[in-house]
């Protein structure tokens, strides 16, 4: 089981939280500094993290995985269990340089709603790709 420390904002206070990632059972246990802990399951860690964010609308998760334009491909989900995802830009192909760790720090364009991320992904997928 891997432990990942992330930064969150709760009650306007910057805090750290812990994510215990179990790759055997594809679960994440979310632990806050006040002792709160809850287990989340999904097909991969990106989906588990989405469940955590949906369940805690009062918390801002300062992570790449909460960024509106971050979404895994099916291959990146399978190869990294959803820990790696692409930071997408409308009108541009996603490349290896766009791969990010969903638990890395981020403070811009965040959402707790995975549906917002899916909507962005569909807009990106349907966008006209500029040829270099």
From TrEMBL:
Superkingdom, taxonomy of origin: Bacteria
Protein name: Uncharacterized protein
Species in which this protein is naturally found: Pseudomonas frederiksbergensis
Classification of source organism: Bacteria, Pseudomonadati, Pseudomonadota, Gammaproteobacteria, Pseudomonadales
């Amino acid at each position: 089981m891997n432990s990942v420390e992330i930064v969150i904002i709760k009650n306007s206070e910057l805090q750290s939280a812990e994510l215990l990632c179990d790759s055997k059972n594809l679960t994440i246990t979310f632990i806050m500094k006040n002792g709160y802990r809850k287990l989340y399951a999904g097909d991969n860690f990106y989906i588990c993290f989405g469940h955590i964010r949906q369940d805690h609308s009062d918390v801002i998760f300062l992570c790449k995985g909460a960024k509106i334009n971050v979404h895994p491909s099916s291959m990146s989900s399978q190869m990294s269990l959803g820990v790696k995802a692409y930071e997408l830009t409308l009108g541009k192909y996603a490349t290896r340089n766009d791969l990010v760790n969903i638990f890395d720090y981020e403070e811009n364009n965040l959402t707790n709603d995975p549906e917002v991320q899916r909507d962005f992904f569909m807009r990106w997928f349907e966008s006209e790709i500029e040829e270099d």
